[in-house]
Records
---
Amino acid sequence: MRQRIRHIALALSAAVVVGTGVLTPVQATASAASRPDTVRQGLDALVRTDGVPAALATVRDRDGRTRHYTAGVGDLATGAKVPVDGQVRIGSNTKTFTAVVVLQLVGEGKVDLDALVDRYLPGLIRGEGIDGGHITVRQLLQHTSGLADYEGLLDEPSLRDRYFEPRELLDLALAQKPVFAPGEKFGYSSTNYVLAGLLVQKVTGRPLAEEIDRRIVRHLGLRHTYFPAVGDRTIREPHPRGYRKDTPDGPLGDFTEMDPSAGWAAGQMISTGSDLNRFFSELLAGNLLPPAQLAQMRTTVPIGDTGAGAGLGILSRPLSCGGVYWGHGGDIPGYETRGGVTDDGRAVSVAVTTVPTDYGVTERLEGVVDAAFCR
């Protein structure tokens, strides 16, 4: 997950592809019918050329019409079809949910964005060259704390069966020297969001998963989105199976069932393309945060010289047709997701059922997102 987001910062079997309209049957105009469907073509290429087992997309245009796509097969062992709008592990998209809860607490006057983390988690952030008395809540949410990322210290194959307490993940990071001084620059680190999750629990006195469910999932009616309970290694509803390779040239192994606790506040959740599109749309429409907190969330720092920016739990990326879209993206063994929304109401979510070892594949996945927005 860490490597994939860093790559984002540095670069902005036979396939069967199915597209279905799900809201209102609309008779395409002659000109529209004659244009190639670039989303369909892009998903087809990801499967046929890049070897992704399956790809899913949910695309909503500015008029509210939604179209679902699938490509490939949902189960390599049985050849089962990819479920339309199936559930997937959404990885670091979870960070946006966590950030929303923190910013809601800011709006309620329970958290100060520019307060030092030590105010809420006294004495917790300590290590060689590390002091929570010099790191603010804002710096956690914007990845400018300088804290090392624990993800690169995990043995990925062992994640299938290993349960992690959040404090274990934090301890891995605090055993490392900081990458830079707090506030110096952007540096993506899931450690920031483990701390954000712990802050939510300390301030509310309730589990993070419960706060996300109450404040966001049930509030918006996201019926296919949830934070897996401790010990839950399954995906509840129809889903394509997820795969990973031990080596770049190795075979794909089924990694669908796994303990997602290594992601926790930074990457544990499960959702669908439709639910993700609704979440990001409602967020940008101001239906989750007061105007002041939404403005803070959308205030970005540059991610290198890519044209992308990092807000508080959300990223902006430039589009080839002009403007930007807002979202996050995420990777967890078995699944990679990309997408977001634009200010004029377009929404796109694309997922594949393996985390590509070749970043060129991820670039092409991001190209499908761009094509869906710009079609």
---
Amino acid sequence: MAVAKTNPLALVCGDDDFAVKARARQIFQQWSAELGGMDHETIEASVSNGGEALTVLGKLREALQTLPFFGGGKVVWLRDCNFLGEDRTASSAAVTEALAELAEELKTFSWQTVRLLISAGRVDKRKVFFKTLDKIGTVENFSAWSQDDKDWADRAEIAAGDALRKRQKAISEAALGELISRAGANARQLENEVEKLCVFVGDREKIELADVAAICARNKTAKAFALGDALGDRDLPRLLKRLDEELWETKFDTDKSEIGLLYGLIGKVRAMLLLKEMLREGWLKETRDYSQFKAQLERVPADKLPADKKFNPLALNPYVLYKALPQVKKYTSAELVRAMDVLLRCNQRLVSSGLDKAMVLQQALVQIVTPGAAA
């Protein structure tokens, strides 16, 4: 994607920090090559208070007004700007006024020999400065992938495919699915894992599932999937080991909790229940071919499934469903319904009792996995 040569003003923004930086760097290099010369400037615009923001805006004005020393053109990059959003610094009266004044100046600025690139995080689209850039320049917004987005896995697959093609590598369907499952909705980690894979396979062109299993790390979400996989496989020793690992990480990671682990397990059992129903309805058939499985998913009547993403199996990563398909045979429908009841009561005990949370979770998982265990 190239920025139109006739538009010398560009804003690249969004909460996908990795994509914003990569795209801004691409534009800066493209513009610098087109204009030539040695006078291009980069102004660091990550600030901690309003005074620093005003200083940065002063440097920007100076850079725009300073003609290239050797003639020709000049690119000015306001990099990593963090005062265009809604935080305290961006909302201060002095910064708001200074940005409004700069917006007016940009409307009448002579762009014949100068191009301005601004890269930023999330911006406030209601403010005059953004509206001006949107009107007279080019704005590109990059939203971070989220597990809540139905198409995050598709976007990740496209990004991984592009990154691999740039490195002249190919990847099998199963390996791609496992790569996405491990990296999760994290563009930066996905890029890192692709780089690791390409170094790992060396001169070999095609990346296989064994390569991903050998070298790729699991992010937080993928580790939660590993806990669910052990539950789906009905493998009690592995399940308790994974649980211990996850419980240990809750001591150091504020984003993790026993309740969060429980909700992940509830999601796993719910997905298995829905998969069992999809098999019963004939919408899916057992297959060891990942491509065939994805083709089956595309033919599932969407109007027959819940609209809420939390209850819709098609909102999950297709590879996660593919791995769960053989696990469904390890449980009867009655056992899965009973498992949901066990997890519900586990939730109640975690919230309302003073019992040891690890023990409560362990007891629930033993009841689910052990055939004939008392509920």
